[in-house]
Amino acid sequence: MSHRPLATVQEVADFLNLKDTKTLRNWMRTGYGPTPHKIGGVIRYRWAEVESFVEQSAVFKFVDAEGEHGASEIRISTATDEDLAEAEPERCGCIS
User: Fold this and answer.
1) C-alpha distances in angstroms, 85 versus 14, 57, 66?
2) What does the pLDDT average to over 45-61?
3) In whole angstroms, what is the distance from residue 32 CA to residue 24 CA?
4) Potential cystine with 7: which of 26, 31, 45, 89 (Cβ 3.0-4.6 Å)?
5) Are 21 and 10 contacting, i.e. CB atoms less than 8 angstroms apart?
6) From start to end of 33-71, where are the E strands?
């Protein structure tokens, strides 16, 4: 288990670049977003779960690939960075 301090609602809202904590609190009610933990009557988040939420929320990962006749093209991949690195480690142009 990580020994990093737990994050407050405000810290997570800031990290996710949300306008305010209201969005995060609405997510709590609907079950969306990183998992909140109630500890001593206050809501806290594990940073690893916040970072995992961000990673899983990625809509597209763009991979630069060489197209026909040396031209460059953009392909959209749903593979993880690890999958791409294993397949073609020298050509992995993943954007996180």
Assistant:
1) 31, 20, 16
2) 87
3) 9
4) 45
5) yes
6) 36-39, 42-45, 61-66
